[in-house]
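re: ur question from earlier - yeah i can do the single chain one, its not a big deal. heres the input i used so u can compare w yours
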Amino acid sequence: MTINVTFESIEEMKGFAAMMAGEEKGSRQPVTAQPEPQDTAPVQPAATPSVEIQAQPIQPAANPVAGATATVPTAAATYTLDDIARAAMTLMDSGKQLELQQLLAGYGVEALPMLPQSQYGAFATGLRGLGAQI
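and the output i got, formated as tokens:
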């Protein structure tokens, strides 16, 4: 006779094993048998059925959106002097001339045309930090 048992978790399997071993729930001490009364005939124990336990691996859930992949931009955004100038103008219009001048000074230039093209991306990030949409 074969009995198949499926467990949903390791804790469930441990509980079952403890029960089969005769342990009380919550303790690791085996349950002791009560002594047989002296005035009765000994009882023959019944044959213990064998139990075959087959652990089944839990399969991860399938991706709910099949074939969907996330794309990550791999190239840095490029900016032109016109893009940067438009963003700087919006800052000036909102009264942030002093902050814009300090940002330019941080790059060692007094005006946008003096900004090296290699610094456009970093400067655009600085403009965003001041609130510009670029």
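Residues 87 and 132 are 6 Å apart (CA to CA). not sure if urs matches, ping me
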